[in-house]
Amino acid sequence: MKRLSRWLPTLCFSMVLASNVSAQSSAPDTPQVFAPGVISGPANEDSAAFTPDGDTVFFDRINWPNAAIMVSHRVNGAWSTPTVAPFSGQWLDHDPAMAPDGSFLIFSSNRPDHEGDSALDAVMADGKVRSGSGGHLWRVDRKGDGWGQPVRLPDTVNSSSRTYAPAVAADGSVYFQRPGEDDDFRLFRSQYRHGTYLPPVPVLLGDASAHKLDPAVAPDESFIVFDANFGGKDDPDRLYIAFRDGKGWGKPVDLGKSINVKGPWGSHLSPDHRTLYFSSTRSLPVHYPRTQEQAQADIARMQSWDNGSDNIWFVSLAPWLDTHGRSSD
Length: 329
Known about the structure:
This protein has about 325 residues and is mostly beta strands. The chain has a single domain (about 5-325), classed as 6 Propeller (Neuraminidase). Helix content is about 10%, strand content about 35%. The protein is globular.
């Protein structure tokens, strides 16, 4: 999948054998695929949003235009077969982001702003309309062991019909992406104060002319991970990390060639905020010549998940966090 926010600009935008995964390098900056064959499957997955205990994960699964937010639970160390989240399925829901305390989740959806209306359209800067391809941010609160009904965030946040990729800070403030003045995507932050969202302000990161997407923000807003095309509009996106510098952000740091393979995107953080989850079409290598047994394992892996679709990968952020004095949360 390419997230709706990526598609729209270009339009106008069985478990695998453990040895298949452990064969990857154990270097701390080498990504590993997340739950192959269960969560990372033959479709497209992104946006791994965990509950604080790490035992439940929400993510979206999509093969356009078939999409929903899924949920899986870790039981005895293994992830359960994902099911459609109780608050999703009726509309094109994606980009789940968990509040750090687990009390609510924010996601993007084309569901109508008012009950009885049709799906939200995406309105482009030139006035063209992409039917049913819009996105507004919605919040769903935890209710005991379940979830309540989604509630649309106010117009202060949802001023664009192309509002996607939320991230939630500890104080409830929300980061997200929407088109800038040039109709390319930029990051914005809306401060949550006294029960309401203040007008969004741009998140200034590096070259202002580059697009920025998919923020993952530490709860204390001390660092942010995102993807951008600082190399130029014709170059694939790369993942960057930036650290708080006074009231602003320091220079974005490229996460390196072992992570930035095939334009990774969709950053999310683990519950301890030291592991990065992201989506990529990267694959495990196939080595020739191979034995019949290796061929069977490679084909099984391909049928299970490793087929060129987007899967969820994870990698430790320790090399970057420790350098900036964040050896503990």
